[in-house]
Request: fold
Amino acid sequence: MAAKEVKFHTEAREKMLRGVDILANAVKVTLGPKGRNVVIDKSFGAPRITKDGVTVAKEIELEDKFENMGAQMVREVASKTNDLAGDGTTTATVLAQAIVREGAKAVASGMNPMDLKRGIDKAVDAVVAELKTNARKVTRNDEIAQVGTISANGDAEIGRFLAEAMEKVGNEGVITVEEAKTAETELEVVEGMQFDRGYLSPYFITNQDKMRVELDEPYVLIHEKKLSNLQAMLPVLEAVVQSGKPLLIIAEDVEGEALATLVVNKLRGGLKVAAVKAPGFGDRRKAMLEDIAILTGGTAISEDLGIKLENVTLQMLGRAKKVVIEKENTTIVDGVGRKEEIQGRVAQIKAQIEETTSDYDREKLQERLAKLAGGVAVIRVGGSTEVEVKERKDRVDDALHATRAAVEEGVLPGGGVALLRAAQALDTVHTDN
Reply:
């Protein structure tokens, strides 16, 4: 075991304070819309240019062990802020530095550290309550664009893209940021529910130019198990043929004889049909099939519910305005599910998001929520070089989180004015000692 160096009192505090200051001083140059960039040397690849506080904080490792402890504690502040809010990491670092510095002075002058901690907690609660009272709601599209522009260092194009994305997919929709393959930044919006499963046979293709299946106003059959022969499905297939509408089959798999029969029917023109595998795995697959059923106003056919294929009627199938199936994706546009049922499902998923402790589960639930409630927007960030793309992507990420927070909780005057005004609330705060 490595030998430990032990320090006490002022000597220990001074070294840790120095570490706090080194990290905070490097981070705080990035503060606000007029903040400066930081260039970070990488052991491999090009240097990284960023204005994101937490990215700078994560790169700092100090040689002195005691100084490094101080730096790591402030780094934790930036990381936690990033996890919770996604932006505001530099502001959090600056506030943490001030609290540590003033706290150390108070302890050095003889104040009881526990009384100091209780006082800080009370003051924080009072200031947060005051900030919430003074917050102003952001509702208009141009206001959303302004918030995005300021957070992206005055880049109006980023602000415009964010406002457009939020307008199209709604506040519940998922907006993802990716690196583009070109120099241009572009926005792609997928409206409706899209999942990552394509057609099971190229013979289903209806649009040869775009190499995809397009079904207008189809029925949607949602089946939890594999389909290996269609004998049990004949009554419902007959009913679909009589209706003259196309049919989309979503099942765990469609194989062998069943797939061959569907392909032959499609080629002979008897039934306009396409089949895709169900998305997801295990319990998540069941949940996603239920989502599709609610969105399309159909019933997920499952043996758990006691529904057999031979008993399925036309009324149990879902409906949609359009379905587009590509090699690797299926998009269901304008399902005819009842609004109240969709909203109920959305509320249920939101409750699950609140309860889950797993980041992975939360991300998957957010995706399901977006597919039901709005859609998915992808902002592809372009640039001339890899360094430029990464720097711009950092700004778009920060601006996206700032914009989401603004829509959710409102905005306040910048430049420290809101905190200055909120400080007046501290006059009414009294501690026990």
About this structure: The chain has a mean pLDDT of 86. The domain at 9-111 is CATH 1.10.560.10 (GROEL; domain 1).
